[in-house]
Design brief:
With about 190 residues, this protein is an all-beta fold. The protein has no helices and 12 strands. Helix content is about 0%, strand content about 70%. Strands 1-4-5-6-7-8-9-10-11-12 form a 10-stranded antiparallel β-barrel.
Length: about 190
């Protein structure tokens, strides 16, 4: 939200650590298939966004999943939506931000999304193979972040898996870079 009312391009890289009720090595056996699931405890993302006054559009990759994102940004309020390209996950978030001086901002987020985690089906043939497929779930959650010097952010996020009644937590470190700092050619 630092780039509101500016014509800028912003790059972001982050890494997240997950905890809570993660599916760690669970197994489902039946007469036909051997299905295992292993939810990752960390992931990474990289993205790039173009801002047009109070609107933003961009895309990136989270671990191996490509996504598109668009939204409204202002000094104190942001609304964003995202979707993955294949397979389809999507969500929306409301962001409230409060400046504490020139270099520190704190923020609160609320989100609702359709997320996915990997599930592996063991295919038995001449050579057994682990075939990944997404297992989708609906999630509602909230978070808190601190942004420092307009370049770094630390975020804590809670999400409630509504389909499987599980709680997940994420701790994320973000690094931002504005690729240009022009304000409609006036700076």
């Amino acid at each position: 939200m630092e780039s509101y009312d500016k014509n800028t391009v912003t790059a972001n890289a982050n890494i997240s650590l997950y905890g809570g009720d993660l599916n760690r090595g669970g197994k489902t056996d039946n007469d036909i298939d051997d299905v295992r699931h292993q939810e990752w405890v960390f992931d990474y993302a990289a993205s790039i966004f173009k801002n047009f006054s109070f609107f933003s559009i961009g895309g990136g990759v989270q671990t191996f999943t490509q996504f598109l994102q668009t939204g409204f940004i202002s000094p104190y309020l942001g609304i964003t939506g995202w979707c993955s390209l294949i397979p389809s996950s999507a969500g929306g978030m409301i962001i409230q931000q409060i400046p504490i001086g020139d270099n520190i901002k704190i923020g609160f987020t609320e989100h609702f999304s359709r997320n996915g985690r990997e599930e592996y089906k063991i295919e038995f043939g001449a050579i057994p193979e682990k075939m990944p497929s997404p297992k989708f779930y609906r999630e509602a959650g909230a978070g808190f972040y601190v942004s420092i010097i307009k370049r770094f952010a630390l975020e804590f996020r809670y999400g409630r898996d509504l389909d499987n009644e599980q709680n997940r937590f994420a701790l994320t470190v973000d690094i931002f870079a504005n690729l240009n700092e022009k304000n409609d050619g006036n700076e």
